[in-house]
């Protein structure tokens, strides 16, 4: 395929998976209570829907779906697991935007949840999105075997929590007042953004009953995606305008936070991105043409300008 | 047994279960990362330990353990499930105390987490405690059957989330600016405090492989405990001094929040508590003397002065 074809086909796949994901999220965020729930308070469910519906690239669910597809699983149960991961991602954005955290007023070109509602509602909406993710990942359609769902649940908790995303955000906040070495920045980014992207790829393989060896292979692919995503994000933060990204940029520098781009320079960062892309390609080589969509996604993440 | 004997034996059991719970929590909140975690940042793990270790009545884990014991299960796996529930309870206290929520400076006679650390750390510590709970509830020692652990996980999410505790806190916050009927207050309390107490009793029965009928019986017992707990708490809020409870009192009235005691009066509240205790006793009657500790616990909750 030519580059143009790859891009066109990737855009189509992103759209298709996004379109299948939306009703799954809509169903999870229904206004009617589920069995075992008393009621779903209007204001809270609206804030959660505001945070989770109708926006974003849905990169994490797309990764889950593409990896599962690589191993032959394409049903909507995969998207329920993807939705669980997306709920975690959305909760993290809601809490990270709070005044006590990154203090952002805009997200995806719209007021952040605490601006559109209020701080207390934003805190609770984040809490409830996080909790709902652990409801979704247990649902029967995710996988026929309860042991697999339990494995996915535990891995999700580890990717999202103290030793993963939440821990990474803690380290990132501390970076505003403490100098970080390159190794420390790599570790905090592996936690803050890397852990969920790694989980997305790992979960896709687990969902499709991939061999233990392939689960590890795709887990490594996810780690590469995570690092590439962050490096590309750092480049954007340096280079892009607020107009393109729909959020404030140059914030890392303004907050005094060291980034890998800042330490390594733009050229070395671009070189590392190329190297990562090569490693991703090598990892997917055994799967031949079937891995083309995943590889296109890796390239999209590496070269994205928004 | 005389009343004095019951009280003495209850106090001993509370102490014993609390002493067995502490190392379980300590293990979950270890400073070393688990498999699948990168590292556990010092500041975050310290804030979580501050919030969860060495304090509180441990009422929810005690309920889990006593109900499981009623059905013949007494091993420490029960306390791992109890610890998961306690982590959820502790996270809710950390977030409820935040300036944007109830804005409390004291908890159990100590500075609240956002006072001892800072707001961002308190938000993240709450998030990470909540997430860790969903790690703990999946652990092998909780139950040999993954399907049971999955059931416990999903029920925990529903008790804690949008349609349970978090939803109840949303309704409670709205009560500061909106009048509530008695029925609305009952619903919000059933969610805010009732849902976790109900889950504690239900989980105890599920953990010990109780019959479906007994699971429902103990679930109902948990609902009664939840209501009695809240009524007793409302009475305390009206009557007790800050000295006895270690937290600010009379806050509900100050915040303009209607309570059941406020609507029904003290005498009617006491009468309802007696009635609830009678119903709890009837529910436990089939279990004879074996239910004495649980019944003593119900009485303790109904008559507590702190």
UniProtKB/TrEMBL annotation, chains A, B:
Its cofactor is Mg(2+). Keywords: Isoprene biosynthesis, Magnesium, Metal-binding, Transferase. InterPro entries: Isoprenoid_synthase_dom_sf, Polyprenyl_synt, Polyprenyl_synt_CS, Prenyl_diphosphate_synthase. Gene3D superfamilies: Farnesyl Diphosphate Synthase. One of its GO terms (molecular function) is transferase activity. Its EC number is 2.5.1.-. Belongs to the FPP/GGPP synthase family. This is Polyprenyl synthetase family protein. It comes from Roseibium aestuarii. The lineage of its organism: Bacteria, Pseudomonadati, Pseudomonadota, Alphaproteobacteria, Hyphomicrobiales.
């Amino acid at each position: 395929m030519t580059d143009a074809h790859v891009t066109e086909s990737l855009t189509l796949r992103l759209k298709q998976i996004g379109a299948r994901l939306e009703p799954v999220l809509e169903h999870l965020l229904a206004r009617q209570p589920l069995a075992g729930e008393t009621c779903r308070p209007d204001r809270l469910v609206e804030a959660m829907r505001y945070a989770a519906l109708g926006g974003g690239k849905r990169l994490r669910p797309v990764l889950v779906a593409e990896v599962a597809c690589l191993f032959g699983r394409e049903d909507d149960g995969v998207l329920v697991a993807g939705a669980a991961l997306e709920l975690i991602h959305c909760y993290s954005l809601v809490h990270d935007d709070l005044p006590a955290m990154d203090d952002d007023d805009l997200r995806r070109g719209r007021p952040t949840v605490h601006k559109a509602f209020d701080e207390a509602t934003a805190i609770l909406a984040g809490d409830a999105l996080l909790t709902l993710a652990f409801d979704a990942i247990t649902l029967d359609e995710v996988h026929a075997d309860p042991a697999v769902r339990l494995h996915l649940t535990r891995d999700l908790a580890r990717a999202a929590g103290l030793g993963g995303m939440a821990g990474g955000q803690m380290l990132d906040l501390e970076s505003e007042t403490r100098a970080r070495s390159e190794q420390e920045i790599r570790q905090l980014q592996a936690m803050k953004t890397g852990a969920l992207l790694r989980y997305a790829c790992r979960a896709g393989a687990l969902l499709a009953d991939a061999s233990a060896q392939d689960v590890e292979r795709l887990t490594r692919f996810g780690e590469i995606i995570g690092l590439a995503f962050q490096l590309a994000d750092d480049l954007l933060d340096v280079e892009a305008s607020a107009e393109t990204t729909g959020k404030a940029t140059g914030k890392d520098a303004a907050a005094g936070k060291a980034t890998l781009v800042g330490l390594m320079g733009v050229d070395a960062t671009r070189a590392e991105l190329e190297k990562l892309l090569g490693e991703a390609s090598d990892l997917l080589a055994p799967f031949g043409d079937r891995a083309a969509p995943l590889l296109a996604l890796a390239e999209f993440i590496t070269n994205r300008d928004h």
